[in-house]
Amino acid sequence: MMAPTAVLEPGGDLRLVVGSAGSNRIRSAILQVIVGVLDHGLDAGEAVRAPRVHAEGGAVYAEPGVPLELLDGGARELVRFREPNLFFGGAQAVERDPATGALRAAGDPAAAGPWRRPDRPSSPDRAARRRPRAPDPRSRARAARSTPARPARSKGSR
To answer: Whole domain around residue 20: which residue ranges?
Structure first.
């Protein structure tokens, strides 16, 4: 399941874009980020990093930091996690400041956040480790023979 979500201001301007990995937990992750930004006044980063809950089947799952007194006493089993977990979705968000138009991005730290993992170099790092290839002098000659000459265009023609 994928659910990238765009939130628009009443005038139609983009306010927030949110997406998440997380199977059945995508909906709850996206909803909690949106509620954090729109209803609780958090910025995108704070909303993405905020502890989450997820209800499914006969259980309510909670990350540390969720006020458990709000969840205790219900008919569902309460499953408490000891640390933030990718189980709750790997939310990512881009927020547009309504006053300035500036964009801010946020990545869920449980999903390695917006930074690359140290054990997985980024593409430029991998490219720098590759052995350079010598150019094949025949490739330029082949391209010149196979490419038809273009007719000259006069000014104003399309």
So the answer is: 5-109
